[in-house]
Amino acid sequence: MNTFPTLLKREFWEHKGGMLWAPVVVGGLMLGAAGISAAIGVAAKDGSFRVNGERIVTDGTVLATQTQQQIAEGLAFAIVPSMAPLAAVLAFVVLFYALGSLYDDRRDRSVLFWKSMPVSNAATVLSKLASMALVTPLITALVGIVVGTLVAIIAALTMSAFGANLLPRLLATSEFYLAPLAVLAVIPVYALWVLPSIAWCMAVSAWAKRAPFLWAVGTPVLAGILLSWQQAMFDRDLGAEWFWENIVGRLFGSFLPGMWFAFSENWERVDDFQPTEQSVFELVSMSYVSLTSPSLWIGVAAAAALVAVAIRLRRWREDA
């Protein structure tokens, strides 16, 4: 029997609500909101259509072809930022998944059953890690691609009701097909950046006898508060700002996709990004440039140590 794929399937079936249904429900709500907005816009049309305050159609007259092309390219690129709500869902799902990953089966004592199976603790912990770092983001990305693509098509069809036939231009735009590939391409980047955050939560999940959330979140936050208080009391630089940014911020901010730009000092380049002038794959390129950051590899090394701790703790801790 191929053990590791079986363990991944087990993780999926046990956490299907967070891994699959949470992004599907949020994506469905996004599509519903887009459809309602489009219907209201068409029903209330006054002979003109605007995007970002700029008129696209006035009394049935379509603006310049170049403007239409730019709007089509903007709609195609919008597939990426339209995934922001799903990115937030992913962050919460992975956070709470990690916190309960090794605690829940100790709480209900099912850990005794799984330990009786011919599966090593290392394989079990690593399957949970892979499910959180790779499988869950992949499922969310696929749902987001479908939702973002449909939202872009709905927007193009809405403009068609005002006389701007943008759907053919949208479908002929290369970014319409590159944007989904770009989303999939950054999943390995996300996995590496989020690795220490997941590993920390898993180690706490394997150790805590109760309330792993309070231990995992409260410990670094309380340490930061104490450090800031000591710094204020003695008027000395004790590194509180560095601690908040590089420990607390890095530890919990990494759950949110795209935050590697902030940690790798590429935020200004992202802020200056022009969708109609630059390919979406330039964002992918900047994402992979973030892999040269020393803080990333320090985090990966710390993650390896924390995962080893989680594996060792699971060997002897059986109750919560």
As a percent range, the share of helical residues equals over 70%
Q: Give the CA-CA distance, first to last residue.
A: 31 Å
Radius of gyration: 23 Å
Strands, count: 3
Oligomer: single chain
Q: Name the strands of the widest sheet in spatial order.
A: 1-2-3
Low-confidence stretches: none
Give the helices and strands, then pairings:
Blueprint: H1 3-14, H2 16-43, E1 48-51, E2 54-58, E3 61-62, H3 65-77, H4 84-100, H5 104-107, H6 111-115, H7 121-160, H8 167-172, H9 174-185, H10 187-207, H11 212-234, H12 240-253, H13 260-263, H14 267-271, H15 281-289, H16 294-316
Antiparallel strand pairs: 1-2, 2-3
Description:
This protein is mainly α and 320 residues long. The protein has helices spanning 3-14, 16-43, 65-77, 84-100, 104-107, 111-115, 121-160, 167-172, 174-185, 187-207, 212-234, 240-253, 260-263, 267-271, 281-289, 294-316, and strands at residues 48-51, 54-58, 61-62. It contains 16 helices and three strands. It has a three-stranded antiparallel β-sheet. Strand 2 and strand 3 (61-62) form a beta hairpin. The protein starts with a helix and ends with a helix.
What descriptors fit this protein?
single chain; 320 residues; mainly alpha; three-stranded antiparallel beta sheet
Give a quick precis of the structure.
This protein is mainly alpha-helical. It has helices at about 5-15, 15-45, 65-75, 85-100, 105, 110-115, 120-160, 165-170, 175-185, 185-205, 210-235, 240-255, 260-265, 265-270, 280-290, 295-315; strands at about 50, 55-60, 60.
